[in-house]
Predict the 3D structure of the following.
Amino acid sequence: MNEVEKLAAIIELLVSYHPSGILILLGERPPLSALEWADLARSIQKETDIEHIDMSINTDGFFSQITIGDTIISFIEKLGSWDVVVEAVQSFRRIFPSDWNLFVEHIRFISTPLSSRLNSESMLSRIADKYCVDNKTVTRRRKLVPLSIAREAIGGFQMALFE
C-alpha cells in the first residue's frame, strides 16, 4: 500500500467510524491522539457484525500493522501534521464542492451502521438524483474523494496554488 492509499484509509477510518469524523477532517475539532486513533482502529477490528465499506483489500492489513508499531500518528507526522490533511480537505472542498457534498451525504445516509440495505438503496438513488448522476457514479466518487484528498495532502498541491 503506497502513502496515498494509507492516508486515504486513515481518512476513511475517521469519517466512517468516528462520530465527529467530518468535523475533525475539516479542522473544526481537534485531531485525534495516538490513543484515540488506536482505539478507533481496534474498534472496527472487533466489529464483525457491522458492515462497513471495504475501500481496499489492503486497508484491513494496514490497520493490523498498527499493533506492530506502525501508528497512524507517526504516519501523519511524516506528512508534517494533521494540518496538512485539513488544508487538503479544505482545498478539495472549495475546488470540488459537488463531489465533497456527495461524499458527505453518502457518509451521512449510506455508511451509517443503522441504515438497512433497502433504505441504503433508496438513499443512494436520492443522492444520485440530487447530483444528476447514476448510483454507480455516486459510489465511485464516494471512494475517490478520500484518495483525492490524500493525493492533495501528500502532493502538496494546495500549497503550490496561487490563492
